Structures are given as C-alpha cells and as structure tokens.
Amino acid sequence: MSQNNRKLHREAALTAGRPAPHIPPRQTKAHRIKDDAEAIATAHELAREFATDAVARDRERRLPIAEIEHFSQSGLWAITVPKEYGGAGVSAVTLAEVTAIISAADSSIGQIPQNHFYMVEALRLAGTEEQKQHYFERILDGDRLGNAFTEIGTKTPVDYKTNFRNEGRRLLLNGQKFYATGSLFAHIIVAVAKDDTGRVHIVFIDRATPGLDLFDDWSSFGQRSTGSGTVTFDDVEITPFQVVDHDVVFEKPTPMGPFAQIIHSAVQVGLARGALAEAISYIRAYARPFFELSIEYGYEDPHSIHQIGDVSIRVHAADALLARAGRLLDLATADPNDKTVAEASIAVAEVKALGTEVAQLAANKLVELGGARSTLENYGLDRFWRNARTHSLHDPVRWKYHHIGNYYLNGLLPPRHGAL
C-alpha cells in the first residue's frame, strides 16, 4: 500500500482495524434454487440456524464467515439471476421476503447480501452479454460480490475520488472505500469509480488481485458483524471487461433505485418482526406483574397487552407495505417507464419510512415491557434497537417523507438514484 493510501486508511477507519479474514475457496458449486417457493422455504430454514448464535456474534463482534458460506451455498445469493441465464429470477416480493426472514433472525446477516443483489441487478441492466454470461455463472456457482461504494472525506456520500486511468496499455484503479458491507466475505469486490471523463462505473475485481486490500475496522455500535470496513486500491490493474457503466442505469427509467432500497426496507421490516417476536417470547417467560395488579403473570397486564397489540398492527402494516412495494417493483421491472418506476420508488420509500419507525418502536417496547431484567447483557435484547438505529442511517428517512409528500401533493416524480 502506498504511503498516501495508508494515510487515507487511518483517516477513514478511525481504528487500527484487523486484517481481512481468509475466505477459503469454494469446495463445491452452490445449490441452484428453482423458484420463489423454494427460496422462501430455504430462507426460513436458514433463519432458524442463524438465530441460534445471533446474540453471541453481536456481543463478540464475530464475523459470520461460516454462516455466510452456508447462506450463499444454499443458492439464495443467486435467486435474482435471470431465468434465461440459469437462475430462478424470483420476484421482488420474494427477494424482499427472503431478506426480511433472514433479518428477523440476524439483521447483520440479512444486510450483507444487499450490495451483492444490487450488483447482480446492475449487470442485468447494463452489462454486456459476455459480462452477464461470465459473472452470472460465477454467482450461480456460489461466488459472492462485495461492495466498495461509499467514501469518507467527500462532500456527499455519492461523490467519489476513486478512479481508474489509462497508463500505457493498462487501466489502473486507485482509491479507498469505507462502509464496504459484504466485502470481507466476498470473492469479487465491486468498486464504484470514475473514469478519465468523470463518468461513474462499477468495476468487478477478484479478491486476490494485487493492490487490493481489505480491513476489518467497522466499529459501529450496531450491525456489528456486517464487516462494513475499509477497502483500498493501490494501482490495481483492471481490464475493460471488468468495467460496467453505472451512470447509465439512472439516466433512463429503470428499477435500479427501488430495487436497491427494497432490500434495505426489508431489513428494517425484518428487525421489527424479530423485535416483536422477542418481546412476546420474553414477556411470556419473564415479565412480572406490576404490584398494583392482582394478576398471576406479567403477560396478563392490560397495558402490556394493549401495547403489544399496537406494535403488532404496525408490524403487520409494514409487512403489507413491503409486499405492495414488491409488486409495484415487479411491474416496473417488467415495463420500466417514468410512471412505473416512480410508483415503485414511492412505494418502497413508504415501507422504508414506516419500517424504520416500527423497527425502533418494537425494539423500544421489547425492553420497556420486559422490565429491568431485560437489559442484562446475556439476553442481548438491546441489539434490536442498536441494529435498527444503525441501519436506518444508510440513507435519511426524512427525505423519504419529502419525496412521498411531493409525489402525492404536487405530482412531482421522485429523482432517480440508488437511495430512493
């Protein structure tokens, strides 16, 4: 790593960090899921497994390397590969539900594939036929894509200093990324970078490429095991075959924006489901009645009953909005135009706004109704609030309300970008 990149790394990480974990090569090809029903069934099966050690992974900030391997080998990471390339080509409704199911069990694991699916969609929309055939086959076999998008130190989160330039007969990529969720677990790192003209592209880079370095320096209080740390590129040699135009997917109506956001929305809805289920389980097992009441069990408290009812209604509303958003996104995917893409974007924004609110509400009520004992570290119940709060900061919900209001009140179509 150059001296300049070392300096950038220290500024970005704010911690010393650890070297990236070793990701062993795949021993077998991943299972290929055939349809939506199999995807949902597989997600439920994996969620039961991932829930088992979710508290310990969060407490220890333990990277879920074995769990992610099982996740991708199950075939779930390839479910959006189009059918004509051998994938299941599942609906957006199914993708969102799979994400919510996994996130209810462990929201860190639920978030990790988000950028992988984003890159698959970018390939579908903007890749050449040769790129699609090559990368879709690798994804179907079990290779995982990791993101290297956002940078620290730029004016906004969508300003990029990372670039590639022509040097003789070579293309060289240089720069640094942070919030690189999924890259520590990835076989292929996908970087957002500008070319000599300032146009934005995504670049697919094999993990072992010289000059590419990964650092486990994610120190947030929530989503602790997403591995969302630093990636640096120091004269990484790339070829035109590895480069896909990223600007083009937003220059015309495409489902790219709402596709990206429905996965984030599903993480919040999953968190809300998980916190509500945990609240019911904990209250049934441990909550004590208030001493003014002549009841036997805490779950007979009329105030607790009322508030669990209230949260349940809100979680079910978020569930319904998530399914509705998925249906509208499927329509936009089948027939992308200004109207369908705007409708999908607004529908996804609605569920992101409500899901974010409900996830934090459910997480708060879990502890409030559980009582003081529920704050003990061994239960790990605080992880729901920490994870919901941290993940909600990916893109500001306040802007969702702005675009939703402008759409319904003033008939203004929302902008096209990856955060809406």
Automatic annotation (TrEMBL):
Q: Where is the Acyl-CoA dehydrogenase C-terminal domain?
A: 262-395
The record lists the membrane-crossing segments as none
**Leader peptide range in chain numbering:** none
Q: Member of which family?
A: Belongs to the HpaH/HsaA monooxygenase family.
**Protein's name according to its UniProt entry:** SfnB family sulfur acquisition oxidoreductase
Q: Which Pfam families match?
A: Acyl-CoA_dh_2, Acyl-CoA_dh_M, Acyl-CoA_dh_N
Q: Which EC numbers does the record give?
A: 1.-.-.-
Q: Which residues form the Acyl-CoA dehydrogenase/oxidase N-terminal domain?
A: 42-143
Q: Which GO terms describe its molecular function?
A: acyl-CoA dehydrogenase activity; flavin adenine dinucleotide binding; oxidoreductase activity, acting on paired donors, with incorporation or reduction of molecular oxygen, reduced flavin or flavoprotein as one donor, and incorporation of one atom of oxygen
Q: Does the keyword Cell wall biogenesis/degradation apply?
A: no
- Domain Acyl-CoA oxidase/dehydrogenase middle positions: 160-236
Q: Which keywords belong to this entry?
A: Flavoprotein, Oxidoreductase
> Quick one: where's region Disordered?
1-28
Superkingdom: Bacteria
Q: Which GO terms describe its biological process?
A: fatty acid beta-oxidation using acyl-CoA dehydrogenase
